[in-house]
Amino acid sequence: MENPEQLIRKGVHHDGLKEGLVKAFLGSLTWGIVIVALLLFGRICWDGVPVLVKPDFPFIDVAFLTEKTETLHVFDDANAERHSLPASEYYQWVDEHGADAVFNAQTYSYSGGGIAGPIVGTALLTLLSIILALFFGVAAAIYLSEYAKQGRFINLVRLAILNLAGVPSIVFGLFGFAVFVLVAPVFTDVPSDRSLFAIPLGFTWLSFQGWNSSLIAGSATLACMMLPVIITASEESLRAVPQGFREASLALGATRWHTIRKCVLPFAMPGILTSSVLSLARAAGETAPIMFTAAVAAKDDFPWEGVSGPLGVLQSQVQALPYHIYTLAARIPTSEYTQRAQYGSVFVFLLMIFMFSTLSIVLRNRVRSKLKW
């Protein structure tokens, strides 16, 4: 018969074996995810780095980042030499040598020049959408956490917000198209024929005719996608601030809003910025919402060219890297002449997401380092 000491040792050995198996299982899952991510990012870098990096100074293909997207023309000349030129250089070559010197010509849309237009469009869409989402999201979180009377209705509102986080992006795209592109109100001297209805104001009309496909419509749609994450995370951050902060401020005679602005919101800001990082990465990579509301495959001008003032920029269509990548991958036959644009666009887009996320994380850490409680 085993003595108590032997039984204890056997139990400890058995528990240690179980603990080791659980640790090994969880560790294998974690490292499996890491390996898959590294393989994915490694393949993107393997294909994309040669497009962006050159062996000679300045070691980066600046033209790929600063030139506009063009059609690529591939052809043979009279000496059977193969050429692949973007549209602007192709027409110069034809002017110099004549159209009769072009043989076996082929064209590849959106595969020549650079990707300056999609880069600018992605940056504008992302920055404007995060500004809108943070403003409305934090305002909604403050109301739900600090002002709203807690009860069944507010709980249903929170449940609806959580459910919105699981809605497919294509649904948000259709919503943005129906609301922002077709119905949103605008001030105009002459209402459009497709206006839902118009309200005369004496000096102008408030017409519900939509913002058309534009930067502001696409940004508003992306902001709607980001709102559930920002509202939920911001509300949890506000609740995490100790109640004593509020009570001390109110006891000193401060108003409710002054208490929130000075004693609650600053300490909740790191959590709010964390939610912005999560939502920004998702919004920047979406294709379906901007396809219906803002993006075009090819655009000769930047958003600020040929328009008057900031409102003109907001009303212009833009190119965007997610839609540009989709067009290259799904609508153009893959060949050796399209791979440069495909691989380079994906790699640059990955770098942009990394830069946006890094900037948000650095900002969050700086805010957090200044707070002590």
In short:
It is built from 13 helices and 6 strands.
> How many structural units, i.e. domains?
2
CATH architecture of the largest domain: Orthogonal Bundle
Report mean pLDDT, rounded to a whole number. Answer: 83
Tell me the Rg in angstroms: 28 Å
- Secondary-structure element series: HHEEHEHHHEEEHHHHHHH
Structural class: mainly alpha
Number of strands: 6
Amino-to-carboxy terminus distance: 58 Å
CATH class of the largest domain: Mainly Alpha
Could you name the ranges where pLDDT drops below 50 across 5 or more consecutive residues?
A: none
Query: In the CATH hierarchy, what is the superfamily of the largest domain?
Result: MetI-like
**Major β-sheet annotation:** 3 strands, antiparallel
Please state the overall shape, judged from the principal axes of the Cα atoms. globular
CATH topology-level name of the largest domain: MetI-like fold
**Treating each run of at least 4 consecutive H or I residues as one helix, how many helices?**
13
Strand content range = 5-15%
Strand order of the largest sheet: 2-1-3
Helix-residue proportion: 55-70%
Describe this structure in words.
- By secondary structure, the chain is mainly α.
- It has 2 domains: 45 residues; 254 residues, MetI-like (MetI-like fold).
- It has 13 helices and 6 strands.
- Strands 2-1-3 form a 3-stranded antiparallel sheet. Strands 4-6-5 form a 3-stranded antiparallel sheet, with no helix packed on it.
- The mean pLDDT is 83.
